[in-house]
Write a structure and sequence with these properties.
alpha/beta; TIM Barrel; 3 domains; eight-stranded parallel barrel; three-stranded antiparallel β-sheet; 18 strands; 39% helix
């Protein structure tokens, strides 16, 4: 077990919610807080006390939950310029939030004192001291956020240090050094943090923004310099370019730096937590995210796949399962025999017991990719391709024909789309029609309607994503089109691909693969039951 403990402070529900396209419902805030508690996050910043009703409601509702580990923190600021601390509404709301810990922000850059607060250095220090003391007198654990500390230190080190010391003298339990503008270099973070750690007699935490893409590196450097608490957000949510990403910081601290951050066994749920947060705010998951992204342990080049097959350490810096991820082998025109073999094994299809089979599949793959097909995000289509090459493919239906019409009955009228389709299933002809929001939606609806009598399980299938790529734009409207479809049955998801100069035909290819993949899957499940 790792020995040295680094506490983790999550500010997803407050600082993260300030990010563009990030918004939590009241129920969503509770759900994420409970999930963070299970994961072993030490501090959860629930919101800005008094700034809005949703955050104050969170502080009320979270008390009804039986959290097993996390400390809930209410965020606020020092008293206002010239105000009495006991009658300041912001300070009153921190007390009203009724959390055992509070975080307050105060100015650590003299530029902000003169140009933003428009007050004196003396008054700024009094605001910090009086607020910290008042909150300590009310039994609170106080974390003091030294806002713009690093910029302030570079501009006037004596002033920045006096702010930190003022908070400590007033009783602050933790001094949080903030790179609020996210503009500091790693060597600056290390040197300044080290200077503070050697000077103040309390815990030092680090809070970094990602405006130069250095938030993760800067957070790790601060720990190396002696910080004992890291602050950040799940998936790096936050204002502008975001906050330090805990989904990369936590695994690095535990797996690379010998620190202990979360509950034993919970690190393997890192990807699950990352996906959970994205689902709550309805954001597409970043597949290239370190550790937790779908591509983090994906291998495409033939030599790389061959190396991983022989020893995963050759091209993987950690074991994927440690963070709840898994290895993926991608197939493309760069693939070699090892790539094809491993991908077939991964998909559980074909015998692949001869070099000739491998060569035939590789040849078919490269021929199709030369025509514009791409199978990296279309595992289901690749599985069907292998079955066809090995002559193991059994079509569940045959197309007799389809017609798709798009009609617009006036300038101000919406377009309507209708599809008629005729298919043959077990020598029976079925013809149906359906309308839809667009031609592809209409065709999808008509196909499933035609097959429902024979294969009721496809009622569960729905499209989750539809992407179109123009492959040769110089051909203008006659260009070849690649369509990628993502489908799901509520339990699993799979990708399929189609290519044609006609976007409807390309969509049809992808739709057929999607439906057949589901039917193959159902058939396999029945055999294994």
């Amino acid at each position: 077990m790792n020995s040295e403990k680094i506490t983790v402070y999550d500010t997803t529900l407050r600082d993260g919610a300030q990010g563009e396209d990030v918004s939590f419902s009241g129920v969503g805030k509770i759900k994420l807080a409970k999930r963070l508690d299970l994961f072993g996050i030490d501090y959860i910043e629930g919101g800005y006390a008094g700034s809005n009703q949703k955050d104050m409601r969170f502080f009320e509702d979270i008390k009804k939950e039986n959290l097993s580990h996390s400390v809930i923190v209410a965020f606020g600021s020092t008293r206002r310029v010239g105000a009495k601390v006991g009658s300041d509404p912001m300070v009153a709301n921190l007390i009203k939030a009724d959390t055992s810990a509070v975080a307050i922000t105060g100015k650590a850059w003299d530029l902000h004192v003169s140009d933003v607060l428009r007050t004196t250095i003396k008054e700024n220090l009094a605001m910090i001291s009086e607020t910290v003391s008042y909150l300590k007198d009310h039994g609170k654990e106080v974390l003091f956020d030294a806002e713009h500390f690093f910029d302030g230190y570079k501009a006037n080190a004596d002033f920045a240090m006096s702010v930190a010391q003022c908070a400590v003298d007033a009783g602050a339990d933790t001094v949080v050094l903030c790179d609020t503008n996210g503009g500091c270099l790693t060597n600056e973070i290390y040197d300044i943090t080290k200077a503070v750690v050697s000077s103040v007699k309390t815990r030092v935490a680090i809070h970094i923004h990602n405006d130069m893409g250095l938030a993760i590196a800067n957070t790790l450097e601060a720990v190396r310099a002696g910080a004992v608490q890291v602050q950040g957000t799940i998936n790096g949510y936050g204002e502008r370019c975001g906050n330090a990403n805990l989904c990369a910081i936590i695994p690095t601290l535990e797996l690379k730096m010998g620190k202990r951050c979360v509950k034993d066994g919970e690190l393997s749920k890192m990807r699950e937590l990352s996906l959970f947060a994205d689902e709550l705010v309805n954001l597409t998951h970043d597949k290239k995210a370190p550790y937790v992204g779908q591509s983090a342990f994906s291998h495409k080049g033939g030599s790389h796949v061959d190396g991983v097959k022989k020893n995963p350490r050759t091209f993987e810096h950690v074991e994927p399962g440690l963070v709840g991820n898994k290895r993926r082998n991608l197939v493309s025109e760069l693939a070699g025999g090892s790539s094809v073999l491993l991908k077939a094994v991964e998909l559980g299809v074909g015998r692949m017991d001869s070099a000739n089979d491998t060569r035939e599949i590789l040849s078919a793959l490269k021929e199709l990719e030369s025509q514009g097909y791409a199978f990296e995000a279309a595992d289901a289509s690749f599985k069907i391709l292998i079955q066809k090459v090995l002559k193991e493919h059994k079509p569940f239906f045959e197309l007799e024909g389809f017609r798709v019409t798009v009609e617009k009955r006036g300038q101000n009228e919406p377009c309507t789309s209708d599809a008629i389709i005729k298919v043959r299933v077990n020598n029976q002809i079925e013809q149906t029609s359906a309308d839809g929001d667009g031609p592809v939606n209409a065709l999808d609806s008509a196909l499933r309607k035609a097959l429902m009598r024979f294969y009721p399980e496809i009622a569960k299938v729905f499209l989750t994503d539809f992407r179109v790529r123009i492959l040769d734009p110089e051909e203008a409207t006659a260009a070849k089109t690649r369509v990628l479809i993502e489908s799901s049955d509520g339990e699993d998801s799979w990708g399929t691909v189609g290519v044609s100069e006609n976007i409807i035909e390309a969509s049809w290819e992808a739709l057929v693969d999607s439906v057949e993949y589901k039917l193959f899957k159902s058939e396999e499940n029945e055999k294994n039951a």
